[in-house]
UniProtKB/TrEMBL annotation:
Name of the featured protein: Class I SAM-dependent methyltransferase
InterPro entries assigned: SAM-dependent_MTases_sf (IPR029063)
Amino acid sequence: MQQAESAELDWGEKEWGTHRYHTRQLLEHAMEASSVLDRAAVLGAGNHGGVNLPQLARGFAQLTVLDTEANSIEEVLEQSGLGATANVKTLTNVDYTCLDQLNFYETWEDMLLNHTSAADIACYIKDCAFEARRHEALPHLKQSFDLVVSCSVHTQLFYIHALSQFAGYAPQYAEADIRQIVDTLSYLRNSLVEDYNRLLSSLLRPDGRLVMWSDMIRLSDENEQLLEQLYSLNSEQARIKFLFRAFGQHGIEPAVLGLKDLHDRVKQENQLFKCWVWLADKDKRYIAAGFSGRLR
């Protein structure tokens, strides 16, 4: 049964315009532009099954897939027919942010349980931004890969988990205190996004290529007109300019920060930038964006 399902899974080869179609184009662009196809890494490999793992496993001598959770990777590998493939290595429970090394989530929960003041919480969270930067997530894999792929990781880093933890305790704080805590969580989130981008670049061998994509804007009735405006533009340059302006006004903050920071560091020559509508599930639609290129 599983083999039949794997055979039917479309990795963007059959149906035009799907999420996997666009991510496949980014991967193909990177592979065609690479002179060495030895080792590739996929971070966030379990996120929505959007990356064509069979294509990468065929194209590279070794493929390393990484994620924060083991079960999501196992599911995607099964769907891909790569469960027991010799050249595929898996790394799970990866601490992209280094917050686990600081025991952040346990300390954060204890502070909330003990009704710690907003000022003390804010001070602790800011300290964590500096402490996290002193640690390394994957030091043993520095400069190990000819291709590094990041699959919608920026929007998954830390922030949603921390906010959901805080939600149950927010009623014990005044409105100004809530704002102070949330603002400081945003500060840490932004710092961790920049740290994650540094992690991506540290994994690349000299002349290696980076592919990344992310959900950028969640579509709703209020911003649906963005698609009409986007499709009305005739040149690629005009569309990219419009998109970055729209990202600033309507975008998911960590995705916008992560994409802009990396895009500003990508060499202009032989770069591919793409955007598309991503139907994540029946109730969620996003404008997604990503690129393939070499960092300066």
